[in-house]
């Protein structure tokens, strides 16, 4: 498999250089181009047709959401990973409905960037050159599996995905209240999902003790 071509859209020059540096550390990827505004990005993406676009949400002219809609409307054959400070649940849901393969919340560590691109690379490599996919291949691509434990009554897949995306995009461990604020969800709702993930050993829990009262739980993905 040839290297995956990547185009980066980021209006902050310093953040752009950081993301370029992260990408240089990754095997199997090559930078095809970059833009600091939406209109240049759309024109070059349509012309170059990269395999993968790392797309910022907030740009000086048009939004990353508008770019995503235009690329999907014109059926440009590229995958999208959103990289943004936007954490509201409405935006995240809309981005996922439009087919983004991942959603990274700024600021993030290299480890999160690395995981996102490695996961993308593994599946891209697996399906390259195949005409037909097995069900397990499709499930892996969509992030689901027959081997996963069925969610109990009261929990739904869409909310679970938002919780997992929120945890994955967090720069450091978060409390249920913090994650709820980031996602626009009630703390009680978030806690139910986090408790379920803890039972299934999908999250790490760090206890921080104060001078009085109960210890505070901080959650992060394993």
UniProtKB/TrEMBL annotation:
SMART domains: REC. PROSITE patterns: RESPONSE_REGULATORY. Residues 5-121 form the Response regulatory domain. InterPro entries: 2C-system_Tx_regulators, CheY-like_superfamily, DpiA-like_HTH, Sig_transdc_resp-reg_cit/mal, Sig_transdc_resp-reg_receiver. It is found in: Cytoplasm. The keyword Transcription regulation applies. GO terms for cellular component: cytoplasm. It comes from the Bacteria. The modification 4-aspartylphosphate is found at residue 56. GO terms for molecular function: DNA binding; DNA-binding transcription factor activity; phosphorelay response regulator activity. Keywords: Activator, Cytoplasm, DNA-binding, Phosphoprotein, Transcription, Transcription regulation, Two-component regulatory system. This is Response regulator. It comes from Cytobacillus dafuensis.
